[in-house]
UniProtKB/TrEMBL annotation:
Family: Belongs to the calponin family.
MF (Gene Ontology): actin filament binding
GO biological process: actin filament organization
Organism: Manduca sexta
Domain Calponin-homology (CH) per the UniProt entry, residue ranges: 25-134
PROSITE patterns: CH (PS50021)
Taxonomic lineage from the root: Eukaryota, Metazoa, Ecdysozoa, Arthropoda, Hexapoda
Domain of life from the UniProt record: Eukaryota
Protein known as: Calponin-homology (CH) domain-containing protein
Pfam name, any one: Calponin
Gene Ontology CC: one annotated term: actin cytoskeleton
Length: 187
């Protein structure tokens, strides 16, 4: 796993440090407490990156979470601790999360969790899933999602908008300072 690799250096180390600086212990703790409310696990809801990794790394709790939100989301949860079986669990969670409405840009890659490369994106995905859980009658976390605000315009209103000249095209009112074509330079 990640502990057998050489450390990053140079620009890669700077980029990794930037990613790790975004991680927030308080939000991670809130997320773990929400998971415990739905699944009854984990016992330790400390928001440290190390605890989050230890709790979620095999993917079984993630699969239990999506099954708690919608029964049967993940059909087979691997109990094995083999690397590929754990990564299958994480991938199954990600697929189920997308089906529950988590946007693809708010998900993470399996390797982000498995090798602790970007735990910030893991928390973002769980927070997004927490917002979607309210749609399924489960407790939700994070800010409330915005409601759709569809507006209907009549043909008359749409045609009236075509007669308005945007300020991006300039104006013909007042003095047009800044236009000096054809004038002498003042000394």
């Amino acid at each position: 796993m990640a502990e057998h690799r050489a450390g990053k250096a140079g620009i890669n180390a700077e980029a990794q440090a930037r990613i790790h600086s975004k991680y927030n212990d308080e939000i991670a703790q809130e997320t773990l407490e929400w998971i415990r409310k739905l699944t009854g696990e984990p016992a330790n809801t400390s928001g440290t990156a190390e605890n989050l990794y230890e709790v979620l790394k095999d993917g079984t709790l993630l699969c239990k979470l999506v099954n708690a939100i919608q029964e049967g989301s993940v059909k087979k949860v691997n109990q094995s601790t083999m690397a590929f079986k754990c990564m299958e669990n994480i991938n199954a969670f990600l697929e189920a999360a997308k089906k529950l409405g988590v946007p693809p840009q708010e998900t993470f890659q399996t390797i982000d969790l498995w090798e602790k490369q970007n735990l910030y994106s893991v928390v973002i995905c769980l927070q997004s899933l927490g917002r979607k859980a309210g749609n399924y009658g489960k407790p939700s976390i994070g800010p409330k999602e915005a409601d759709k605000n569809v507006r209907e315009f009549s043909e008359e209103q749409l045609k009236a908008g075509q007669n308005v000249i945007s300020l991006q095209y300039g104006t013909n009112k007042g003095q047009q300072s800044g236009i000096s074509f054809g004038t002498r330079r003042q000394m």
